[in-house]
What does this fold into?
Amino acid sequence: MQKYQAIANKLKQKIVAMLIVMSSTPKRAGIFYYLVAVALVGFAVVVRLAIAPFSDGIPFLTFFPAATLAAVLGGFGPGMFATILGMCMASYIFIPPYNSFSFEFQSVILWSNMVFFVEEFVVCLAIETMHRFRRNNYTVTHDLNVANTQLQQDLKERDRAELRRIKLEKKLTHIAASVPGVIYSFRLRPDGSYCFPYASPAIKDIYGIAAEDLTEDAAPAAMLVHPDDMEYLHDSIAESAHSLNPWKAEWRIMHPEKGEVWLEASSVPERELDGSTLWYGFIHDITDHKQVEVAFKEMDVRKNEFLAMLGHELRNPLAPIRNVVQIMKAQSFTDPTLEWSIHVIDRQVSHIARLLDDLLDVARIMQDKIVLKLERFDFAEIVDSAVEASRPLIDMRAHELLIATPKTPLWVEGDHVRLTQVFTNILNNAAKYTEKGGKITLTVTLEDAWVVTKVRDTGIGMPAEILPLVFDLFTQAERSIDRSQGGMGVGLTLVRRLVDMHKGVVTASSAGIGQGSEFTVRLPLSNAIPVSESPQAESTSSSSKLRILVIDDYSDAAESLALMLQTKGYDAITAECGEQGVERAIDFRPQIVLLDIGLPDIDGYEVAKRLRKLPETQGAILIALTGYGQPEDHERSRASGFDYHLLKPVDTEALSALLALSGHHL
It folds into this structure.
């Protein structure tokens, strides 16, 4: 039973398939092919009529090829249409009774029609199947041809792209090989391991390791990192991986052949899908640069040492000269020439001392070693101090000085000493570069939130080409061969740097040679006004005779200073070295010690420490009197126990005031 049921199912499937074929109309079976089918049937009728005498009893003779041809041309639909139409025409015209559909022999006629229909159905179905197979085969072939054509184009494009890639890679390889460094990509994996997926061949010159040995693991390169730089390098990479900020670093490696090598790298990171961080960047060897940098630092240290020694060695001979001048001033001379000579020596010593101060100050400022002591004060104080300091030079050259300042206070914040130095240098510059009997004008005005000071002179002026360089170090306008103006070209450099440190602006202008010059300084106005302090009563100097010990290995300086102090009523003695100074201090019990730093046996710092430990000199005033004036010298003096630090040649008035103040406190 199951066997027959299976056969029935298969037969059913066949019949359904046939019905589907019959019901489906091929794309080519349009109305045109049905008209062709009608024409073919009509032609079959004509031919059948023509051969009727010879084909009696075969009514479907010409209709079979007509229906078959209709199926060949139009497919299953037109073929079956021609079959049915042919059956009708044959039954009507060629089966008796003729020209009628009433059949005498119905069973025979029906059987003939059925046979014709079945035969033609099978033929049409076979032809339609062939048509469909051919169409499908054509479609598949066409699609395959299209796909093959596209594939060929893709292959050609791939080949062209590969060729371009090879050429580009070759160019990049040549470029990477010619670059004095390493072009690289560096990957940090989530598990903490790292590698160089790509590194140009130059990495072998830097690390001594071939690029292919680092593509999977960069540990061999990491092992070369200097131990002191390992933590810094690791932290900087971790920070860049976390923030995805560009990475830049300098570190050292220990090259197996070259020794210590400095490297610098910069790169840009990106996050990958697996959580890794990939950097693209550049590494290069900066060992030569670092060596030059170290050399410059060493040169800078030697330069500072030279400047300190220069100041010390030049100040030492000036000290006894100034001391002797002060001693001679205290004497009464009837010879005017001798008195004039003393004043000339005094002025020139002061001039040399100022030149030394400028030279050492500009060196310190260029190295940012000067710290401003900021306070708030009326700007008129700066003008008064600068004019007072410049007055001797202005009077000596017989200049007329005109000053115009506001009556209301203009409060500024700055370093009183350094701002005084700024305007003293500008006034001195105007006095030096103005012919005798000239005119100098100083005006102070308030413009918005700026205190504007202008110093105008009627001097030699400046050409246009020198104006942009006037504040550069060692720059001076053209002068006569006798160098009557003096100076080293550092004063205006000091002015600009000090004004910059006060957040101000300084400019210079001139209409040209012989037209004079004008310097303008703008300083920010301070909003805060300091609370005025109650005036303090001036201290009077102690009437007692102070004991002063002068310790200096430069005998001329020590003896001349002691003699000058003796002429002023002090009890002064000298010592030529540190050990002798300590011994004399025990016996002499000085109240004030003027102590040189550069002593031949033990330096002044050590002497000061010993004096502080002695019961005879624990409370004495220790004053460093030396040619060493660098900031670190002042700091070391304070650390060693000095109360004051004065530079040679010491200003007599300043020393006298300091001694008087010290005597008051003793």
User: Anything to note?
Assistant: The chain has four domains: 2-145, 179-285, 371-524, 547-665.
